[in-house]
């Protein structure tokens, strides 16, 4: 496949790969949530996810990333998430107790979704500031430096 269809296929399979892994390994993640220390398991899963993100970031930074890297890292992230999600949900019950679990889940969901919105807005604001700074520097160059160069 090439062109737009190939890009759509790659994007769709990259997005679906972790979900498919979670469907197949979710049961084992639930078993792990009951069998291991939840705090230690969360540290391990979060560290693993961070390492996967670091690997992808380094591949991109050194211009070495290929499509199969993204697929492999997405699959591995799906494996990590298939253990992380049930352990995290069980950890909430352990932290607050059965009586307050509904409020804790609602609060956790609200904070998670709000952080996604605020994070995206923060990134947009930073990018807007960078673009404004670059445009300002361009205008200074065109108004001050460029006329001096053409005069000589």
Q: Could you state the order of secondary-structure elements as H and E?
A: HHHH
**Relative strand content:** under 5%
Helix content: over 70%
If you compute it from the alpha carbons, what radius of gyration comes out, rounded to the nearest whole angstrom?
23 Å
Describe this entry's structure for a reader.
The chain has 152 residues and is mainly α. The protein folds into two domains: 1-96, no CATH class; 101-152. The chain has four helices and no strands. The chain has helices spanning 3-35, 38-61, 67-96, 101-151. The protein is elongated, with a radius of gyration of 23 Å. It starts with a helix and ends with a helix. The model has no long low-confidence stretch (mean pLDDT 85).
What's a concise summary of this model?
It contains four helices and no strands.
Summarize the SSE layout with pairings.
Blueprint: H1 3-35, H2 38-61, H3 67-96, H4 101-151
Helix pairs in contact: 1-3, 2-3
Keywords:
single chain; 91% helix; 152 residues; 4 helices; mainly alpha; 2 domains
